[in-house]
């Protein structure tokens, strides 16, 4: 007990003083302040009464914040409020304006580029691209087209197929070739297709007006039965009205197996079926026997009618005369710059209110409500950057001159009525004064029988383009799709086609600082790339109308 009492006093049992443990700093500070006359006396001596009050307030606020940490959540709000008060005191007139710059390739500046480079272009006219434009040849081995003759007889027919071919010239051509393939696969008799009148093309032409009907039937006789009209005994069953026949509504790109499983039983039952519409109703991917019939119809059986063939041969001869300096070689350009194409693209060219009013009216007339429905957003700049705008005549001229075609090159222009032709065609004629069209090559009386028929006029363009040395396509569509394949078929596997990279062109033609030499170098490379692409290299599931070779090199889409 005695030792315990001593320990409480800090004295050991032996009489030695034992040090006590250190006290809390907070308590020690208070005691030290009190021992020296208290906190008040110390504060008055150091900083006076005011300084002590500030410290007490700060200590109280800090203690409150430590106890209520959620108060810190209001700190950002206080900061924002202070910034708003500060910004409100600054005049906006002193803040610099940020002017957005259009993305490269989003603006139509080709006229300015042409004006700036024209002198250099005219001075550089020595290159002759026609002499060396085509350096590559088919490299897939021995060229073997997709057609082989059939010498076997035909079994008894399972019935009659009647189709309605819709669209323009080449969409109708697709329908005809697919109908031949389906009829042959089903062992049916094909009735000469009926051409559906369309409000856009406004062409009432029949099959025999565009194609040689007798030759078509004769060329296919060993493979597919073709007749010019439905037999009388069949028509009696349907009251002499084909609309009473069973009409199949077939989905686009249906496989050939669908026809065998679904269409064939109905054909055998009814003896006559009708398929309307029929464009693009058969998949590109099909067995070799079906592809062979497609090729046979497209490249051998479909020959233009005698009037179209006669005037086409006349224009081809005149083009070769115009290009005598180049040994009769000429360049064919398919230009899609008609008003409906320009309007449909939704691109901006020269701009201004007049252009906008004209093209808005054309869009409303041709596609009522399609471009003005709620929620539809049209971005002309993005469309141009993606290469979706049709090339103008001026841009075609710039491209060809940059690719090395000099102003002595004879150009055949395949086109409809050019939008604002007088204005837009002027720079192209300056760059290529030997440019011709079917209207300039033919006499008025020679062209008169065809002028009011868009499909017949397109057939003339098609024929002249097929026999050109180089074909230039400026926009997608069925016309170049078929023509490229036809030229591959005729020229041993090489398309001899220039298909420009329009995304790259949009950037080049929108470059404010590019010089002629730099532009020409870029376009030379583009031409060389087109040359390589012209070789028969097929993609998986590609159309046999574009790649008419069953054994050609195949490249996956992946």
Describe what you observe in this structure:
The chain is an alpha/beta fold and 558 residues long. The chain folds into 2 domains: 109-141 and 306-555, no CATH class; 160-300. 48% of the residues lie in helices and 7% in strands. The chain is built from 25 helices and 12 strands. The protein has helices at residues 2-8, 25-35, 38-46, 48-67, 75-88, 110-123, 129-132, 169-185, 207-210, 213-219, 232-237, 256-270, 288-301, 306-322, 339-345, 353-366, 380-385, 393-402, 421-431, 438-441, 444-447, 454-466, 478-490, 502-508, 516-533; strands at residues 160-165, 189-191, 194-195, 225-227, 246-248, 272-275, 331-334, 411-414, 470-473, 497-498, 537-539, 553-555. Strands 1, 2, 3, 4, 5 and 6 form a 6-stranded parallel β-sheet that branches. The protein has a 4-stranded parallel β-sheet with strand order 8-7-9-10. Helix 23 links the parallel strand 9 (470-473) and strand 10 (497-498). Helix 6 (110-123) packs parallel to helix 18, helix 8 crosses helix 13 (288-301) and helix 14 (306-322) crosses helix 22 (454-466). The longest helix is centred in the first third of the chain and has 20 residues, at 48-67. The model is unreliable at 1-19 and 24-49 (pLDDT under 50). One of its GO terms (molecular function) is glycosyltransferase activity. Belongs to the glycosyltransferase GT106 family. Keywords: Carbohydrate metabolism, Fucose metabolism, Glycosyltransferase, Membrane, Transferase, Transmembrane, Transmembrane helix.
């Amino acid at each position: 007990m005695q030792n315990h009492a001593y320990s409480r006093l800090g004295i050991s049992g032996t009489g030695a003083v034992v040090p006590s443990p250190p006290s809390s700093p907070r308590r020690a500070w208070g005691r030290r302040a009190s021992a020296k006359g208290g906190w008040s006396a110390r504060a008055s001596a150091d900083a006076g009464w005011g300084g002590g009050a500030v410290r007490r307030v700060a200590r109280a606020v800090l203690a409150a914040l430590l106890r209520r940490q959620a108060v810190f959540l209001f700190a950002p709000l206080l900061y924002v409020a202070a910034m708003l008060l500060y910004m409100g005191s600054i005049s906006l007139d002193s803040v610099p304006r940020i002017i957005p710059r259009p993305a490269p390739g989003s603006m139509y500046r080709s006229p300015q580029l042409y004006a700036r480079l024209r002198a250099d272009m005219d001075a550089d006219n020595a290159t002759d691209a026609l002499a060396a434009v085509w350096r590559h040849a088919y490299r897939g081995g021995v060229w073997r087209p997709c057609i082989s003759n059939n010498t076997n007889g035909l079994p008894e027919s399972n019935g009659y197929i009647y189709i309605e071919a819709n669209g323009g010239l080449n969409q109708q051509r697709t329908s005809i070739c697919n109908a031949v393939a389906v009829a042959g696969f089903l062992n049916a008799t094909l009735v000469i297709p009926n051409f559906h009148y369309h409000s856009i093309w406004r062409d009432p032409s029949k099959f025999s007006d565009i194609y040689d009907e007798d030759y078509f039937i004769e060329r296919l006789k060993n493979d597919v039965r073709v007749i010019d009209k439905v037999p009388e005994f069949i028509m009696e069953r349907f009251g002499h009205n084909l609309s009473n026949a069973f009409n199949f509504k077939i989905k686009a790109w249906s496989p050939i197996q669908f026809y065998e499983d679904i269409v064939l039983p109905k054909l055998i039952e009814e003896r006559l079926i009708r398929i309307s519409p029929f464009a693009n109703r058969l998949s590109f991917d099909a067995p070799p026997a079906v592809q062979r019939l497609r090729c046979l119809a497209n490249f051998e059986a479909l020959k233009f009618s005698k009037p179209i063939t006669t005037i086409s041969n006349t224009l081809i001869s005149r083009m070769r005369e115009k290009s005598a300096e180049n040994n009769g070689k000429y360049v064919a350009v398919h230009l899609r710059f008609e008003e409906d194409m320009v309007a449909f693209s939704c691109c901006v060219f020269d701009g201004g209110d007049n252009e906008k009013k004209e093209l808005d009216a054309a869009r409303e007339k041709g596609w009522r409500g399609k471009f003005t429905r709620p929620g539809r957003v049209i971005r002309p700049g993005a469309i141009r950057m993606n290469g979706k705008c049709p090339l103008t005549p001026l841009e075609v001229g710039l491209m060809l001159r940059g690719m090395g075609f000099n102003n002595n090159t004879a150009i055949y222009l395949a086109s409809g009525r050019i939008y604002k032709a007088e204005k837009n065609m002027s720079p192209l004629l300056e760059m290529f004064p030997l440019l011709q069209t079917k209207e300039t090559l033919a006499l008025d009386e020679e062209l008169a029988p065809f002028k009011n028929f868009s499909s017949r006029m397109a057939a003339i363009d098609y024929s002249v383009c097929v026999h050109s040395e180089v074909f230039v396509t400026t926009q997608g569509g069925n016309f170049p799709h078929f023509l490229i394949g036809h030229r591959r078929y005729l020229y041993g596997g090489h398309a001899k086609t220039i298909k420009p990279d329009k995304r790259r062109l949009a950037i080049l033609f929108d470059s404010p600082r590019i010089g002629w030499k730099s532009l020409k170098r870029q376009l030379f490379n583009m031409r060389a790339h087109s040359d390589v692409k012209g070789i028969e290299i097929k993609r998986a599931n590609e159309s046999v109308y574009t790649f008419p070779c069953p054994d050609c090199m195949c490249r996956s889409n992946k």
